[in-house]
Amino acid sequence: MRIARITIYRLELPLRQQIKHASAARSESTNVLVACQLRDGTTGWGEGVPRPYVTGETPEGAVRQLCRSRLDEQLPRDCQSWSDVIEICDSLRLAESGEDPRGCLGNAARCAVELSLLDAFGRLFEEPVSRVTEHVAAAKAIRTRLPAVRYSGAVTASSARKERISALKMRLYGFHHCKVKVGLVEDEASRLRKIRRWLGRRIILRVDANEAWSAEQAVRQLQSLQRYRIACVEQPVPHAEVASLKELRRQIEIPVMLDESLTSWEDGRRAIDDQTCDLFNIRLSKCGGFLRSLRLAALADRAGLQYQLGCHPGESGILSAAGRHWATTVRGIRFLEGSYDRHLLRRLLTREDITFGYGGRAPALSSPGLGVTVDADALQELAREQARIEFD
């Protein structure tokens, strides 16, 4: 079966509340959606979330990059199996849009195209996207099959009253893990003391600085937070200072996770060689899709590092579903984020609501492809730009 057309959309998804951290604040998420239609009419959907401060991409730039990438010349082959689909995904080369020493410029766009292919051919093969993991040789050591997963909660930087309410909800809702955004106030120790009290002793707590501190500030801040049993700190310094984390790890007891500094194989290899982290934060959009994310997890596993599957706030049900398929087929995920759909989005893009349930619990998805259907009315309402590429 061959591809008939690719349609690219730029969407604006309004959020229920402003999401604020040290690197950005937003009340809506601008995402890129790709529809892949096969010659028999089967359609698959993919999504990417371009973030300029993460991979250097903008939503408008991602659309232009895809339009210039000659997808009709790169994706014309007949696909009869998952191996064929993986091969064309791996061979995809996007149009250059600037210097890219880290190998991450275009990752969100690539993720959107790749997921649309996996979804379309999964529907054609009548198999869920989760079956893809079985066919990725590099991921052999980390494969598993789980009937369900458990997501983490989050407390974003906000007023003391809202933080208290949010933390108490995490506790009452039965979460085992919770992340707190830090880096916007000087006295984080006082703030974390209150949040830890509200959350209780049982919840495993980690913090995310989003590049907020210099290396010197990070040491001082994190030493003051150690008493609150912090499971790890995410991206404490800007990427430009990532090399300082080797020394920082010697001075603090809290494990260090890379996020903005972990976008590609090149980043992962450098982190291992330079000993700058204990964990990788893998996100499908940030890291270039389902397949590249599998290989990053396998890389971390071989190096004796842990990893989490993260998400971008504002992902629709398409990326939520892709993350669910990934998480239920990869063993050893330390923390899991995603499927916040109904809690964050004012309008769901998919007909199916796959928001996690009590305590962050969520079942594996077993329907063909990603297992979600785009709501045509929602798409029309949220789309701000559209481009179509016809295949011969």
Question: What would you note in describing this structure?
Answer:
There is one protein chain. The chain has two domains: 3-127 and 376-390, 2-Layer Sandwich (Enolase-like, domain 1), CATH 3.30.390.10; 137-363, Alpha-Beta Barrel (TIM Barrel), CATH 3.20.20.120. 34% of the residues lie in helices and 22% in strands. The protein has 14 helices and 14 strands. The strands form three sheets. Strands 5-6-7-8-9-10-11-12 form an eight-stranded parallel sheet, covered by helices on one side. The protein has a four-stranded antiparallel sheet with strand order 3-2-1-14. It has a two-stranded antiparallel ribbon with strand order 4-13. Helix 4 (82-91) packs antiparallel against helix 5 (107-125). The chain is globular and about 60 Å long.
Tags for this entry?
392 residues; TIM Barrel; 14 strands
**What is the CATH T-level topology of the largest domain?**
TIM Barrel
Cα end-to-end separation: 13 Å
The CATH architecture name of the largest domain reads Alpha-Beta Barrel
Q: What is the strand tally?
A: 14
Biggest sheet features = 8 strands, parallel
